[in-house]
Structure to design on (746 residues):
C-alpha cells in the first residue's frame, strides 16, 4: 500500500479503475426519489437545470479533463443542438410522429455535425491554438445569431411547444415532474455512455495525447484523430444537453450561445474538478445551487462565484473532487478520525471569518449603491442600519477573530494531516 | 473619396487603440507562453481609474497615474497569482486569467455600479481639428493617434535599441542563460507583465471617453484583441500592428458602406424569391454590410488559422 501515499490531488487521472455498477444504481435510485423529497415546482426546476448542466459539464470535461483541450466556445454545440430541437418542435408534421423522449438525439446529432465541421480544422493542435480557434468560432456563431434570423430567431430567440410530440406511453409532458423523469433518463444514459467512453481504448488514448502527444504519435496513434474523435463525441453529448434544455425551457436565445455561457461551463467543470469523472457532476450541482439559491439572497452572487473560482484555480487545481479525493488515503489508513477535531478547530473559525468578510462586502455594497434614504439592510436574518457603526464593528471582529483563530490552529491541522496520511509504523 | 479619407482616419484610431492592447498582450504571451485573458480587463480598469482620478485632479493626471496603478496591479497579479498557478501548467494559467477577467468585471460593478460613467474628453481637446468635405475630425482623435504612435515608437526603441530591451529579448528566448548571466529573470517577467498591463491601461484611459466607460467595455474588446494577435501571429509586435490596422480599417469600412447583399446577389444573376418568409436562405437577401461588419474579424481569424496557423507574421506554430 505504500505507493498509495503519493498525493492523489497532484495527479490528474480519469477516475477510479473499477467498472462497478453500485454508484450508478445508487445515483439512479437517488434521482428517482429526489422529487419525493423536494416536491415544490421550483425545486424540480432547479433539479432539471442541474441535470442538464451535469450532462453539459461531463461533455465539456471530455475535452478539458480527458483530452487536455481548453474550449472557450463550447456553449455553441449545446446551443445549436437546442436550436435544432426547437425547430423540430415547430415542424408539426414531423414532430407529432416522434416521441418527445427521443428528441434529444436530434440535438446530439446536430451538435455532432457542427463539431465535425469545426473539429476538422481546430483539432490539429491542442493548447493555445485550439483555445483561440474555439473562442473565434464561438464568437462567430454567437454573432451569427443576430444575423441568421431564420435559424437563430434574432434577438428574441425561437420557442416551441413540447406537448405536440407523440405521447410516450401516454405521457404528454405537460408537467415539470414528467420532464424531470425524461431528463433523468437522459442523464443516466449519457453519463453512463460518457463513462464507458472514457474506459475505451480511444478514451485512454485521449489521456495519453493530453499528457504527451509526441509519445502517443510515436506509439502509432494520430494525436489529431484522437482529439478529433473526443471533440465530436463531446459535441454530441453537448447537443443532447441542448435538446434537453429545449424540452425543459421550450425557448432558446442568443444567450445559450454566447461567450458568457461558454465561460460558465468552464467554471462549472473546473470548480468540480477536471481530473475525475465525477468532478463536473459535483461542479454542476454546486454551481447550480450557488446560481439559484445564492442569487436569491444577494446581488453579488457572481462576485462570490468569481472569487471561489479564482481561489480554486490558485489553491485547489484538482477542484472540489480533488479536495474530496485527497482524503482517500487517510480513510485507507483508517486514520480519518485523527482529522476530525483539527478540522473543527480550524474550519469553524475559517467559516466565521468568511461570513465576516462577506458581511463587510455586503454592507459596503449596500452603503454605496442603495437608494438614498434606504439605510435598512437584512443580512443573515438580522435587520440593521448599514450607516451605524456597530454592525461594522461586529462584522470586522468576526472576520479578524475568525481569521486569527484559524491561523492559530492551522499548524495543528497540518500536523494532523501529515499524521493521518502516514501509515502506522511507516514513512511518508 | 472624402468618405474614404474619413474612414481611413477612423480606422486608424480604432486600429492603433487595438494595437496598444495587443502589443502588451503579445509581449506577455511571448514571455510566459500564456494568453492573458484578463488583458482587456486591465484596459477597463485603466478607464475607470482615470475617470476617478480625473474627478479630483483632471484628465492629464489620470493619463499619467492610471496606467501606473494598472501596471502595478498587473505586476502584483503576476507575482502573487500567475507565478503560483504556473506550476500546474499552461491550461490552469489560461483558466486563471479567465477567472480573473470575470472577477475584475464583477469588482468594477461592485465599486462603480452597472451604469456608464460620465468620463469626458478634456476641454482643451474639445474642438474640431479639421474637416474633410463637411465631415469634422475631432482633435481628440488626432491626439489618440499621436499618443498611440508615440508609444509604439518608444516600445520599439526600448525593445530593439536599449540594453534593457536586449535583456528582455534574451530572457524571452533563453531564460536559463540570462539567469546564469546574473539577471533576475522572474523580476524581468514581472516587469514585462506590469508594462504590458500598463499599456492596456493607457489604451483604457484614452479610449474611455470616446468608447464609453462601462462594465462591459472589457467584454466588447476582449475577444477582438485575441483575434488581432492570432491574425498577426502570436508573439510578433509587427504582426500585432499590421493586424490591428487591418481590423480597424475592415470594421470601419464595413460599417460605413451600406452595401446590400441583395444587390450583389441580383448582380451575379440570382433572382429574389417572391415570398421571403418561406425561403430557407431569406437572411442572405436582407443582409447588409454594416450588419456583418462586427463578425468579419472572426471570419478572417478562422480563415487565417485554417490556412496559416501561425498568423501573418508569426515565426512558429504556437
Amino acid at each position: 500500500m505504500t505507493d498509495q501515499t503519493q498525493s492523489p490531488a497532484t495527479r490528474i487521472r480519469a477516475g477510479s479503475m473499477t467498472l462497478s455498477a453500485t454508484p450508478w444504481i445508487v445515483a439512479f435510485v437517488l434521482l428517482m426519489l429526489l422529487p419525493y423529497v423536494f416536491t415544490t415546482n421550483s425545486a424540480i426546476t432547479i433539479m432539471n437545470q442541474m441535470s442538464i448542466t451535469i450532462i453539459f459539464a461531463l461533455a465539456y470535461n471530455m475535452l478539458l479533463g480527458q483530452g487536455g483541450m481548453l474550449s472557450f466556445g463550447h456553449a455553441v454545440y449545446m446551443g445549436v443542438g437546442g436550436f435544432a430541437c426547437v425547430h423540430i418542435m415547430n415542424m408539426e408534421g414531423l414532430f407529432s410522429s416522434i416521441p418527445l423522449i427521443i428528441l434529444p438525439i436530434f440535438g446530439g446529432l446536430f451538435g455532432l455535425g457542427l463539431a465535425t465541421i469545426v473539429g476538422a480544422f481546430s483539432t490539429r493542435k491542442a493548447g493555445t491554438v485550439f483555445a483561440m480557434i474555439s473562442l473565434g468560432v464561438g464568437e462567430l456563431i454567437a454573432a451569427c445569431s443576430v444575423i441568421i434570423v431564420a435559424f437563430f430567431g434574432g434577438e428574441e430567440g425561437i420557442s416551441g411547444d413540447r406537448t405536440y410530440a407523440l405521447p410516450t406511453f401516454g405521457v404528454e409532458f405537460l408537467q415539470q415532474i414528467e420532464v424531470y423523469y425524461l431528463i433523468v433518463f437522459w442523464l443516466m444514459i449519457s453519463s453512463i455512455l460518457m463513462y464507458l467512453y472514457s474506459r475505451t481504448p480511444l478514451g485512454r488514448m485521449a489521456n495519453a495525447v493530453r499528457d504527451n502527444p509526441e509519445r502517443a504519435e510515436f506509439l502509432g496513434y494520430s494525436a489529431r484523430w484522437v482529439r478529433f474523435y473526443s471533440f465530436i463525441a463531446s459535441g454530441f453529448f453537448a447537443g443532447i444537453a441542448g435538446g434537453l434544455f429545449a424540452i425543459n425551457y421550450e425557448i432558446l436565445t442568443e444567450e445559450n450561445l454566447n461567450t458568457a455561457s461558454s465561460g460558465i461551463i468552464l467554471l462549472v467543470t473546473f470548480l468540480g474538478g477536471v481530473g475525475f469523472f465525477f468532478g463536473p457532476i459535483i461542479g454542476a450541482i454546486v454551481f447550480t445551487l450557488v446560481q439559484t439559491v445564492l442569487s436569491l439572497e444577494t446581488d453579488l452572487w457572481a462576485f462570490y462565484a468569481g472569487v471561489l473560482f479564482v481561489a480554486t484555480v490558485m489553491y485547489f487545481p484538482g477542484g472540489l473532487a480533488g479536495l474530496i479525493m485527497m482524503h482517500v488515503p487517510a480513510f485507507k489508513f483508517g486514520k480519518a478520525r485523527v482529522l476530525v477535531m483539527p478540522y473543527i478547530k480550524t474550519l469553524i473559525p475559517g467559516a466565521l471569518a468568511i461570513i465576516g468578510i462577506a458581511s463587510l462586502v455586503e454592507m459596503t455594497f449596500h452603503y454605496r449603491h442603495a437608494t438614498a434614504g434606504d439605510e435598512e439592510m437584512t443580512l443573515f436574518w438580522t435587520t440593521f442600519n448599514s450607516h451605524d457603526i456597530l454592525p461594522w464593528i461586529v462584522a470586522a471582529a468576526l472576520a479578524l477573530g475568525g481569521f486569527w483563530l484559524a491561523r492559530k490552529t492551522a499548524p495543528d491541522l497540518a500536523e494532523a494531516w501529515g499524521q493521518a496520511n502516514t501509515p502506522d509504523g511507516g514513512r511518508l | 473619396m472624402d468618405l474614404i479619407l474619413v474612414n481611413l482616419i477612423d480606422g486608424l484610431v480604432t486600429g492603433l487603440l487595438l494595437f496598444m492592447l495587443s502589443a502588451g498582450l503579445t509581449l506577455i504571451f511571448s514571455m510566459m507562453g500564456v494568453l492573458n485573458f484578463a488583458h482587456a480587463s486591465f484596459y477597463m480598469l485603466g478607464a475607470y481609474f482615470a475617470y476617478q482620478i480625473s474627478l479630483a485632479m483632471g484628465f492629464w493626471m489620470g493619463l499619467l497615474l492610471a496606467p501606473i496603478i494598472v501596471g502595478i496591479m498587473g505586476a502584483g497579479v503576476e507575482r502573487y497569482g500567475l507565478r503560483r498557478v504556473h506550476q500546474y501548467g499552461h491550461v490552469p494559467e489560461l483558466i486563471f486569467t479567465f477567472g480573473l477577467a470575470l472577477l475584475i468585471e464583477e469588482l468594477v460593478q461592485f465599486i462603480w455600479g452597472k451604469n456608464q460613467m460620465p468620463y469626458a474628453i478634456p476641454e482643451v481637446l474639445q474642438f474640431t481639428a479639421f474637416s474633410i468635405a463637411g465631415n469634422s475630425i475631432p482633435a481628440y482623435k488626432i491626439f489618440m493617434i499621436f499618443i498611440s504612435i508615440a508609444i509604439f515608437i518608444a516600445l520599439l526603441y526600448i525593445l530593439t535599441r536599449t540594453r534593457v530591451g536586449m535583456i528582455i529579448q534574451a530572457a524571452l528566448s533563453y531564460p536559463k542563460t540570462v539567469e546564469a548571466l546574473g539577471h533576475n529573470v522572474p523580476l524581468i517577467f514581472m516587469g514585462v507583465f506590469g508594462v504590458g498591463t500598463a499599456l492596456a491601461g493607457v489604451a483604457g484611459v484614452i479610449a474611455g471617453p470616446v468608447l464609453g466607460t462601462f462594465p462591459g467595455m472589457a467584454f466588447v474588446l476582449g475577444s477582438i484583441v485575441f483575434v488581432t494577435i492570432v491574425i498577426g501571429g502570436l508573439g510578433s509586435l509587427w504582426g500585432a500592428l499590421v493586424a490591428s490596422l487591418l481590423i480597424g480599417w475592415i470594421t470601419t469600412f464595413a460599417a460605413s458602406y451600406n452595401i446590400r447583399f441583395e444587390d450583389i446577389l441580383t448582380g451575379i444573376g440570382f433572382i429574389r424569391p417572391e415570398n421571403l418568409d418561406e425561403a430557407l436562405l431569406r437572411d442572405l437577401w436582407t443582409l447588409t454590410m454594416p450588419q456583418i461588419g462586427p463578425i468579419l474579424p472572426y471570419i478572417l481569424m478562422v480563415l487565417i488559422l485554417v490556412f496559416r496557423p501561425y498568423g501573418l507574421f508569426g515565426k512558429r506554430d504556437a
